[in-house]
DNA sequence: CATGAAATAATAATTTC
DNA sequence: GAAATTATTATTTCATG
């Protein structure tokens, strides 16, 4: 594993704070807020992108507007050997599967899934998950209501 | 609960697709890609924001760069009565807690937490979670490796 | 990291379909 | 009513100090 040095100073952290809050903030506004020249900010943002500190810019779309109201977490027990990620990679290919985490404990994955409704979830499990060879069992947790869903990291 | 009509046409869905992929795509580029006038796109984007279809624009920051390498999911059993969300709201206030979901089954929440390391997780549980009155028990699942973490919805 | 000039984009008003 | 055009203002970008 490559040890990477990020070396972020206070200005970098402030840029991250602003961009995490609103990724569409234009460069001139960031510069104004930080009391610096726009060109200096632009250069830093590009460096942050190059250094893989700023990964991507997403618009968050209301799942309800796309009729994807149902959210579930599924624990998947697998036969993957330690270090192997075959099943994890297959799970990651499913568009409805938003997250795949390799978890400690009894060899398995935790996945986060969005479907239109319980029918969509059943379909996914019957038609897609069941096709993956090596899945031993699944345990599904259904979300009734999401109180917070936000991916903003704590910036020191 | 207000029943909202979103009424998205193909152009709207394409805009969402582009913005979900890269929220910093400028208006002129979206217009070019869709073969429409910039003003028409701008108006649609504003309407999508007003209608709460486009919720917000986030920059995804590399957790490693901010020394937040540890990810955990914690199941929290609570004494919240049905419909009550006191504990959920308290959990949502904790900055390290990125998601709080009210889950079906045995009265509780599933939360997603990012900390620097296992020490940070222990601190959070000892100093913050333990202060919340009404939490009966917790069960923690530790993520060894994230294979996919992406919040792009499936757009029809 | 700042400056300044040229290229490009955003925005608002107006017109057209 | 939605989209295109136009004109004005603002921002990005890049060479240079």
From TrEMBL, chains A, B:
Keywords linked to the UniProt accession: DNA-binding, Transcription, Transcription regulation
Highest taxon of source: Bacteria
Annotated HTH asnC-type domain residues: 8-69
InterPro entries per UniProt: AsnC-type_HTH_dom, Dimeric_a/b-barrel, Tscrpt_reg_AsnC-like, Tscrpt_reg_AsnC/Lrp_C, WH-like_DNA-bd_sf, WH_DNA-bd_sf
Any one Pfam family match given in the protein's UniProt record, by short name: HTH_AsnC-type
PANTHER family (UniProt xref): HTH-TYPE TRANSCRIPTIONAL REGULATOR LRPC (PTHR30154:SF53), LEUCINE-RESPONSIVE REGULATORY PROTEIN (PTHR30154)
Listed name of the protein: Lrp/AsnC family transcriptional regulator
Species per Swiss-Prot/TrEMBL record: Sphingobacterium corticis
């Amino acid at each position: 594993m490559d040890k990477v040095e990020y070396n972020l100073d206070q200005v970098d952290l402030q840029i991250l704070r602003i961009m995490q809050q609103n990724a569409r903030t234009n460069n001139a506004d960031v510069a104004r807020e930080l009391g610096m020249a726009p060109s200096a900010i632009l250069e830093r943002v590009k460096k942050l992108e190059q250094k893989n500190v700023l990964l991507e810019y997403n618009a968050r779309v209301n799942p309800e507007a796309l009729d994807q109201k149902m959210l579930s977490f599924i624990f998947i027990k697998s036969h993957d050997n330690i270090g192997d990620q075959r099943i994890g990679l297959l799970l990651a290919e499913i568009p409805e599967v938003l997250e795949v985490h390799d978890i400690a404990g009894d060899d398995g994955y935790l996945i986060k899934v969005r479907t239109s409704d319980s029918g969509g979830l059943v379909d996914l499990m019957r038609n897609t998950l069941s096709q993956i060879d090596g899945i031993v069992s699944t345990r599904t947790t259904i979300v009734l209501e999401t109180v917070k869903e936000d991916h903003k990291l704590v910036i020191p």
